[in-house]
Amino acid sequence: MKVQEYISSRREARPLHFTLLDPGKTSADDLITLAKQTAEAGTDGFMVGGSTDLSLENVDLAVETIKQTTHMPVILFPTHASSVSGKADAIFFMSLLNSESRQFLVGEQIASAPWVKKTGLEPLSMAYLVVAPGMTAGRVGQAQPLPRDQPDLVVSHALAGQYLGMKYIYLEAGSGASEPVPEDIIKSVRESIDVTLIVGGGIRTPESARKVVAAGADIVVTGTFVETSQSLKEEMTALTNAIHSK
Ligand code: 1GP
User: Fold this and answer.
1) CA-200 nearest atom, ligand 1
2) d(CA 50, CA 22)
3) Cα separation of 174 and 172, whole Å?
4) Is there an atom of ligand 1 within 6 Å of 227 CB?
5) Structural domain tally of the chain?
6) What distance in angstroms lies between residue 159's CA and the mean position of ligand 1's atoms?
7) Which of 12, 32, 92, 186 is most buried, by CB atoms within 10 Å?
8) What is the whole-number distance in angstroms between the Cα of residue 116 and the centre of ligand 1?
9) What three-state secondary structure class fits 14?
10) From the alpha carbon of 172, which atom of ligand 1 is closest?
């Protein structure tokens, strides 16, 4: 089954949770433990990426490790064309629509497109919108973070993404953000678009995940959670239950 079909068929039943794993921060040995525990805790799939310290070698190794450990879909969440692993199932083929740099609007995509074709990676077209504070993703992607008090501006970007043909809209507060994307922004975007809405950044508790889903997210992404959790399987189960029970 294609990953796009996997996502849409699961979404018909309930919202999804994706776990973001960063090979720049996590060793392959640790990835085995994290992937196993999060899969057992009910995550719906894995994203592999990060803003710094990624090479093709460590992304390849991470993807292979996760796939062998869990047999769940692994989607690349790339920053640079140079670390696009052909071993993943799919790639979020994304444009950072509020970047000030051509490189992140379309340059990295042009550089990686022939490799995506050659490897057969399934491209999942996505508009990536960095909302303040944006954190490292905003800095590395040279974004002008979208202000948290201007839902209309975020809606304009999301609609532009949909009209450009993108099947996914990702609202990103930035990994490690103190707060997730505001609920009124998520609601406004949800009411305006017809495509799949992904929300990530700063989601650390079942309660905040529940609010993000109630506001309209189809897919909730957490990254830092697996790195900071004291008893991962139990805490992740509570988080995925909060998302799945919407
Ligand atoms: C980053 O949205 C993801 O791209 C995850 O953020 O690390 O804050 O969960 P966190």
Assistant:
1) 2
2) 5
3) 5
4) no
5) 1
6) 23
7) 186
8) 25
9) coil
10) 2
Instruction: Give the Cα-Cα-Cα angle 176, 164, 159 (nearest 5 degrees).
Output: 60
Query: In the prediction, which pLDDT does 53 show?
Result: 83
* Cα 43 from Cα 243, distance rounded (Å): 10
Q: Is residue 8 part of a domain?
A: no
Q: What is the mean pLDDT of residues 181-188?
A: 98
Is 233 among the domain residues?
Answer: yes
Residue type for position 226: V
pTM: 0.98
CATH code, domain carrying 95: 3.20.20.390
Q: Is 6 domain-assigned? A: no
Percentage of residues of the chain with pLDDT beyond 70: 100
Query: For residue 140, how far is its CA from the centre of ligand 1 (angstroms)?
Result: 14
Residue 246 has pLDDT above 90, yes or no: no
Query: What residue numbers bound the domain in which 121 lies?
Result: 17-244
Query: Is residue 137 within 6 Å of ligand 1 at its C-beta?
Result: yes
8-56 confidence digits (pLDDT tens): 999 999 999 999 999 999 998 999 999 999 999 999 999 999 888 899 9
**Residues 130 and 147: beta-carbon distance below 8 Å:** no
Task: Find the mean pLDDT for residues 82-107.
Answer: 98
Residue 149 lies in a domain: yes
